[in-house]
Amino acid sequence: MSCTTESHAYVIFGATGNLATVKLLPALYQLHCLGYLAPDVKILGCGRTPHDRAGWRDAVRQLLATTASVAPNCLDEFIMRLDYLPGSLQDAAFYQTLAGWVGSGECARNVIFYLSVSPELYVPVTVGLATAGLLAEDNGWRRVVVEKPFGHDLQSARDLQHELNTHLGEEQIYRIDHYVGKESVQNLLVLRFANMILEPLWNRHYIDHVQITHAETVGVDGRASYYDRHGGATRDMIQSHLLQVLALLAMEPPVSLEAESLRDEKVKVLRSIRPVDVTQLASHAVRAQYAGYHQEAGITPGSHTETYAALKLHIDNWRWRDVPFYLRTGKCLKERRSMVAVRFREPPMQLFQGTGAASVHPNWLLIGIQPDDVVQIEISAKVPGAETRTRQIVMDATVGNPGERKADAYEDLLLDVIEGNRSLFLRYDEVKAAWNVVDPVMRAWEEDEQPPLQYPVGSWGPKAAGQIFGRADQEWRQDLGCNGKADGEA
């Protein structure tokens, strides 16, 4: 190997698993083809499957041929970066062999260790690396990427942080949330802080409420047992992804886009969220399961794990006092859609009483995250004719231009790790603040002997999900465009 100070490597633990094969390896391949990987970057796969180097390279070649846009010369060059180390992640001898591959002294590589493994292995792998001297930064930097979930609840997150801090500095830990890496989510920062037209309106004086939705049409097929034991909609989506979106929407302008400035402002938002009153939980939170959940293979009989969750939250600060933020997520819903819907307050005087426009629809700002990467503004306009009647019109903008390539979230995040850019990765106090929001709700649900509500597959969730609004003029926004007025829950 080349003994230069710039030599670095990606070491992927769990390299034959779903995340590595579906996301990480295709993302690294695209970075290679786009010229973002230096010539000396090496990629080592680690796993229990007994590949040798040639077998691993053949497996990755076949994988990329079916999952990525392959250019023959580019693929051949990428394959030459690959190496493989089989073994048990709980075997001390494995880490000694790994240490030999990394090198020592002047030939030591800078290394990124990606923990694409089950959460219960985070600590054993970290201990194995530390015992073999692989986390010391005497002759190169060491960065450890930890996939979500970071803990199962607040206490387990604290315990995990304590174990990691025994062997790693905070600056070495990269807690990844791929949702934040999506271009449409990153665009929230640009919409907020590059457009002066929004800033005067972005507060409690003009915004009635905010909705954040992540809807999936799929169920828990293929990961039912893990989801039932460790997941649930609140842990899987709200604690991480949706609270990150809320923080980006509600944060104050950071001093700069430098990582700590950005994360400081997000933490302030999360810490300002009013604790949910668990004595009035039904008016602030809804949980449900899709019909047939208990018939899925691997589900514990009588399980109360929710596949749908909705929360009403308030941010107690100067900008957002008394503006409700509604978060919801669910599986087996009617459409696959992630979006932000911002409803503005109605005018203080209704000037059109006694005309055909006596009832004017509220204004909305709609931000599509997936599958539609769009920004829409709904306003009222007069219908042509002698009478004064109004209708909603939409100012619609697609964020991307035709033919523009949209990078996968993992491409941006993996490149950021190489560059040491931590702005899109979660700091521990950010993770802790998010757990503080949802932990009381989850504990109250665990103590509740009543089973979750049920909702039909292919619906928008339980009808009772509308009860957390508490106002007849508020309801869930289901779609983009003028047809977005909610048509009732299933």
Structure description:
This protein is of the alpha/beta class and 490 residues long. It is 32% helix and 20% strand. It contains 13 helices and 15 strands. The strands form two sheets. Strands 14-13-12-11-7-10-9-8-15 form a nine-stranded mixed β-sheet, covered by helices on one side. Strands 3-2-1-4-5-6 form a six-stranded parallel β-sheet, with helices on both faces. Helix 5 links the parallel strand 4 and strand 5. Helix 1 crosses helix 2 and helix 11 runs parallel beside helix 13. The radius of gyration is 25 Å and the shape is globular.
If helices are DSSP runs of H or I spanning 4 or more residues, what is the number of helices?
A: 13
Structural class: alpha/beta
Average pLDDT confidence is 90
In the sheet with the most strands, the strands line up as: 14-13-12-11-7-10-9-8-15
Shape: globular
Low-confidence stretches: 1-5, 483-490
Q: Beta-sheet strand percentage?
A: 15-25%
Characterize the largest beta sheet: strand count, sense, and whether it forms a barrel.
9 strands, mixed
The radius of gyration computed from the alpha-carbon positions, rounded to a whole number of angstroms, is 25 Å
Order of helices and strands: EHEHHEHEHEHEHHEHHHEEEEEEEHHE
The end-to-end span amounts to 61 Å
Q: In total, how many beta strands?
A: 15
The amount of helix comes to 25-40%
